[in-house]
Amino acid sequence: MFPDESTARAYLEGRLWPKGTTCPTCSGQDRITTRKREGFYRCNKCQLDFTIRTGTIFERSHIPLHKWIYAMYLLVTARKGISSMQIAKEIGVTQKAAWFMLHRLREACGAELAKLQGMVEIDEAHFGGKERNKHESKKLRAGRGSVGKTAVLGLRERGGRTLAMTIANTDRETIQTAILDSVEVGSTLLTDEATAYSGMAGLFFDHETVNHSAGEYVRGIAGTNSIESVWAVMKRGMHGVYHHASAKHLHRYVDEFTFRLNEGDVKVHTLDRLDSFIKAMDGKRLTYARLIQ
């Protein structure tokens, strides 16, 4: 479908500008003229020269648009992610360029979701290297378990959407603030018996728990199996595909996995999955300087 730059550009223009060429600055359509080069336009109202790349993750990229679309397809259909080495081989760019492309694509995955509602399973996980596997100079020598790892809070509607975010720590105030910001009042929270969730029942939410330490995993409607299945896929992807993600970039990897869970269901046609990716990338620009700072 997209053998060259021209076909890819026409496809993206049709998706991002469904009502015709639109200025990315003033959103005007009535004073747009074409330039000599194909795909270049000028808004005579705000004197801006622009293309379909302007104001998106493609801006100032020299990689052809049809290669970007192929990379998007590979990322949205790879259940556990795809490495920059593999992307580089698939589309014919350097590994460094593929790494930057993937982070730009992950930036587009971080769309704002409406608050979750209904029955919402909640759990937290930790991502990072094990202390015993670290080089001597990098060991923290502060214990085991979650030491040196980044905490991620996950929330999943029963039969619905998934939301996950990195958090500074797993104390009660941090977790409960995140829940209040992410879940509609009146919903039912389903968690384990961690003390960080205590006190959530009553005024704002119903709250059901399971006691994992006693070997209990399901009791009536209570259970966290769905959100734990999210961690299973994410950890297999982090360990088996990416191998390592620094705390600095982890939030983008988390956004990638949750976007794929929400928009990448195999029951949804591939082009529909691509469309959701394209809609999400509008207005999302990530420069190399910001990425590495």
Structure in words:
The chain is of the alpha+beta class and 293 residues long. The chain has a domain at 119-247: Ribonuclease H-like superfamily/Ribonuclease H (Nucleotidyltransferase, domain 5), CATH 3.30.420. It is built from 9 helices and 10 strands. It has helices spanning 5-16, 65-77, 84-91, 95-109, 172-182, 225-242, 250-263, 270-281, 288-292; strands at 32-34, 41-43, 48-50, 119-127, 150-157, 162-167, 188-192, 206-210, 218-219, 222-223. The strands form 3 sheets. A 5-stranded mixed β-sheet has the order 6-5-4-7-8, sandwiched between helices. Strands 1-2-3 form a 3-stranded antiparallel β-sheet, with no helix packed on it. Strands 9-10 form a two-stranded antiparallel ribbon. The two termini are 37 Å apart. The model has no long low-confidence stretch (mean pLDDT 92).
CATH class call of the domain at 119-247: Alpha Beta
Instruction: Identify the CATH architecture of the domain at 119-247.
Output: 2-Layer Sandwich
Characterize the overall form.
globular
What's the CATH H-level homologous superfamily of the domain at 119-247? Ribonuclease H-like superfamily/Ribonuclease H
Strand content: 15-25%
Number of helices: 9
User: H/E series, N to C?
Assistant: HEEEHHHEEEHEEEEHHHH
CATH topology of the domain at 119-247, anyone? Nucleotidyltransferase, domain 5
* Strand order within the widest beta sheet: 6-5-4-7-8
SS elements, strand count: 10
Largest β-sheet summary: 5 strands, mixed
